[in-house]
Amino acid sequence: MKHIPRKRFGQNFLTDRAVIDAIVDAIHPLPGQTVVEIGPGLMALTQPLVERLGKLSVIELDRDLAVRLRTHPQLDVVESDVLKVDFRALAQRLGVDKLRVAGNLPYNISSPILFHLLDQVDVVEDQHFMLQKEVIDRMVAAPATSDYGRLTVMLQWRYAMENVLFVPPKSFDPPPKVDSAVVRMVPRAEPAQLDAKLLEDLVRVAFSQRRKILRNTLGKWLEEKGYSGNFDLQRRAEEVPVAEYEQAAASLSAASKVA
After folding, report:
1. Does residue 230 have a known ligand-binding role?
2. Nearest by Cα to 185 from 200, 164, 168
3. Which of 1, 96, 103, 95 is nearest to 61 (CA)?
4. Which of 57-61, 186-190, 209-213, 236-240 has the lowest mean pLDDT?
5. Residues 32-54: what's their mean pLDDT?
6. CB atoms < 10 A from the CB of 217, how many?
7. Residues 112/129, Cβ–Cβ less than 8 Å
8. 151: annotated binding-site residue?
9. HEC-encoded secondary structure of 71-121
């Protein structure tokens, strides 16, 4: 029976064989590696991945699709909302320290998924995701560009990222109304040591009025936090490199521990 894509799950199934091959090549799965695929759907990526790996874990919310997936002898099926999956527990169950994670993420909840994995990045070796191109443009953006924002800073603090492949709407069934792309995310070996919640708050305040000079927004917030470092507030939020946000958050984190 043909599976009808469900809008509430954000289902757009990849059908372009050339694109599928290019994504699998970008992931470069090797026999015996532990890979987890989010949203396997109709197994467009799943089958070529499992052929190279030997076995594969998949996370699928759609009950009907999960039933089909369980008939595949080489798949370990986790029927769940990915936002409820404990990746540390999954790694432990699979007997590994690190997981390779991949998938065509539902575009309507892509940012929550990225932040859910950010909280568990210690058990991630790398991530390859297909997302809305606009989101990936924001993820890999450079300072002083319109795409540079909160998502950029939070993810670049923890990952080295690369836009590896453009995917047009015609590669899907049904075709989405937006362009897509594939991003490679590799956790940084030595990220800045800081309180993630503090960095998140700092960046949220900085970009709350991105057209204004930071003196009018972040300046007051830093003063309230007792920040004593050097931070040029005569700039807009998008003009500040990720490293400077990290430095400010690290300084505040260290000061809060002393206090």
Report:
1. no
2. 164
3. 103
4. 209-213
5. 96
6. 19
7. no
8. no
9. CCCCEEEEECCHHHCCHHHHHHHHCCCCEEEEEECCHHHHHHHHHHHHCCH
194 marked as binding residue: no
14 is in an annotated binding site: yes
> What letter represents residue 247's amino acid?
Q
Please indicate if the annotation marks 12 as binding a ligand: yes
81 is in an annotated binding site: yes
pLDDT tens across 174-188, in order? Answer: 898 999 999 999 999
Please provide the DSSP assignment of 117-135 as one string. HHTTGGGEEEEEEEEEHHH
CB within 8 A of 145, min separation 6: which ones? 238
Rounded to whole angstroms, the Cα distance separating 170 from 235 reads 41
When the pLDDT of each residue in the chain is averaged and rounded to a whole number, the result is 93
